[in-house]
Structure formats: structure tokens, C-alpha cells
Write a structure and sequence with these properties.
alpha/beta; three-stranded parallel beta sheet; about 350 residues; 2 domains; Rossmann fold
């Protein structure tokens, strides 16, 4: 009963801007070394999994946690030339979907609390409006709004050492939910497809690198990389450089990486494989309850199948049909100029 009362108080309090400011400031006060840690990782080798995948202290610059993930809103502000202290910036009233969501699952609580919501495309905007009555701003693939972490010289040198690259994105865990699949089966498929490539480069999610899931791929002789911890402000920049090194992308589940790599002109192949989501805590149970709601499941399965059908052939080119579907889901035609994004964020 006491916990329920506390939650009710928080629900009421978080509607106020002052609560959100105090909450974020309090959390940041316990993580004063965060900026230094992020700065250190910015210059780290992109193949240094132990360093890049290591825990980071929670340092919320924005109230809605999704805005802090992958440095997305931080990069948006840089792109639009907005200072984080700009008095016209509704700092703790912006919500964005931190990655593509296939199907009609919507964080209605966050959208309802936010002054403005950002998403990728009309595909997502339709679901958000249906569930909340609010019209979000569409901005296309977030990876457009950052520079690659590696400069042209470093990128060229690494590319020369790697040769032709088959980039692998394994299905990854989500917070308190683990992604479990047959790695032997997936690697058998990778082995079948790696002919003609000099390097198989596996991009591990930070959580799975911490869990030791990278070891199977390491034992296969593949080269490993990671875009970094979820809270790393330069996650997107690092991911952009990693994708830029590739010639072909293969994955065993749908995800944001498909739209990002297509947008960066990298062909994709989707290997359809059973992936089980397994809860590791009570919060994981809640996430899975939402994930497996019948309405969500039906739309997710329907739209995932569109992607599996479109990317079922291993071919090093992007077909018009693939581009059209990716544009619909990720909003390639919704890219904003710095001035346009600035207007969205400040007005």
C-alpha cells in the first residue's frame, strides 16, 4: 500500500516541470564523472568491447529516459545549434521514440506527459495519434543528425585493413528482457553468406557484450565491435562509422539498424529465426506483458512479415521495393534541416 501511495504521488508530481528538473539534477549529482567517462570512450578503439560496453552512471539531461538513450536528443540539439540552456527549449517536456517500434505499441504515458513528441515517420505517427490523439513531429532516421565518430582518414585506414565487410547485427536484449536464439544456427547462415567478404564484423549490443554473448562470435573468428553503452552520448556517431565500414548487412531480427543502414546505402539481408524474449526481472515481466498484448502482437507480426519478405534475398543491392518500405517505416523523406529541427524543438 505504501509503495502504491508513493507511485501515486510521483504520478502527480511528474506532471510539473519543477519536479522533472529536480529529479534530473538529483540523479546527475550522483554521477559527476559521467562527462569524463563519455569523453574517454569517444576516443576509444571501436573494437574495444570491454571499455565501450562497460556500465555508465545514470546522468539524465532530459526527464524522459528515451531522450537520454543513444545520445539522440543531445545530437539533435547539436545539429540544430541549440544550447541545452536555451530558455525556449522545453528541456524536460520533449519525448521521442528512441528506436523504431514495429507494430502499434505506443508509450502513451510518456506521450501524454510530453509537450511535444518526435518519431521517425508517418508509419509511427499514425499509431501515436490513434493511441493518444496527439500529432507527433516526423524527423526521419535519427542517424542523419550526427557525424560519424571516425574522421575520413581513420575510417579509410580501418576500411583498408578490414577489406570487404559483412556486418552482422545479432538480435539484442532490451533492458530486463534477454534475447535468446540459436547462435549455432545463425552462425551457420553467416558462414554460408560470408564468401566474397574479407571480414565478418559483428556489432554487439552493450548489454549482450556484458552478458558474455559475444564470446560465441569471437570463437567463430569474427571481428567484434559495439556502438557503445546505451547512455553514451556518441553512440549514434559510433554506429554511423561502424555501418559506413560495411558492404553488406545481415541480421536475425528486425530493428532500427535496418533503416539506419539502408539510409546509409548499405544493402540488408534478414535471416528469419526464432528469437525468444525472456524476462529477467519484474520490470521485464511488465515489458513482456505489453509486448505480447494481442493487439500489439497482431500488428507487430503483420509488419515484421513485410520486412522479412522484402529482405529475404541475400543480394548486395537495394531494390526499389526495399527502399520504398524502409522509407515508409523510417521516414527517409522526413529529414529536417537544422532550421526546421530547431523550429520543431523550440516552438
Amino acid at each position: 500500500m505504501i509503495n502504491d501511495l508513493k507511485r501515486q504521488i510521483v504520478v502527480l508530481a511528474e506532471k510539473t516541470k519543477i519536479f522533472r528538473r529536480i529529479y534530473c539534477a538529483y540523479k546527475r549529482s550522483g554521477a559527476t564523472d559521467f562527462p569524463a567517462q563519455v569523453q574517454s570512450r569517444q576516443s576509444a578503439d571501436i573494437f574495444d568491447l570491454p571499455k565501450l560496453g562497460a556500465p555508465l552512471p545514470y546522468f539524465p539531461q532530459f526527464y524522459f529516459e528515451d531522450c537520454n538513450y543513444y545520445g539522440i536528443l543531445f545530437q539533435f540539439l547539436n545539429y540544430a545549434n541549440i544550447e541545452i540552456g536555451d530558455k525556449n527549449l522545453p528541456l524536460h517536456e520533449i519525448y521521442l521514440e528512441h528506436g523504431i517500434v514495429i507494430g502499434n505499441l505506443v508509450r502513451t504515458d510518456s506521450v501524454s506527459l510530453a509537450k511535444k513528441t518526435l518519431t521517425f515517420s508517418s508509419y509511427r505517427a499514425k499509431f501515436i495519434q490513434e493511441k493518444t490523439g496527439k500529432v507527433p513531429s516526423q524527423v526521419g532516421p535519427y542517424i542523419h543528425y550526427c557525424e560519424g565518430l571516425l574522421d575520413a582518414k581513420a575510417l579509410s585506414e580501418i576500411k583498408e585493413s578490414l577489406g570487404r565487410v559483412l556486418l552482422v547485427f545479432p538480435s539484442h536484449s532490451i533492458g530486463a528482457v534477454a534475447s535468446e536464439y540459436d547462435k549455432e544456427q545463425f552462425c551457420t547462415e553467416i558462414e554460408k553468406r560470408k564468401a566474397g567478404y574479407d571480414t565478418v564484423l559483428v556489432c554487439m549490443y552493450w548489454k549482450d557484450a556484458q552478458n558474455g554473448d559475444h564470446e560465441y562470435y569471437q570463437n567463430m573468428g569474427y571481428k567484434l565491435t559495439t556502438a557503445g553503452h546505451r547512455d553514451d552520448l556518441y553512440f549514434l556517431n559510433r554506429l554511423k562509422s561502424i555501418i559506413s565500414l560495411s558492404d553488406m548487412v545481415i541480421s536475425n531480427s528486425t530493428g532500427t539498424h535496418i533503416g539506419y543502414s539502408l539510409f546509409l546505402n548499405k544493402p540488408n539481408y534478414l535471416f528469419k529465426q526464432h528469437v525468444a524474449l525472456v524476462s529477467k526481472s519484474k520490470s521485464g515481466d511488465n515489458l513482456l506483458n505489453q509486448h505480447y498484448h494481442p493487439e500489439v502482437t497482431s500488428t507487430k507480426e503483420r509488419d515484421n512479415q513485410l520486412l522479412y519478405d522484402a529482405f529475404s534475398v541475400f543480394e548486395e543491392k537495394i531494390s526499389p521495393e526495399q527502399y520504398k518500405l524502409a522509407n515508409y517505416i523510417w521516414g527517409f523523406d522526413q529529414i529536417k534541416s537544422p532550421e526546421e529541427l530547431k523550429s520543431i524543438l523550440l516552438n
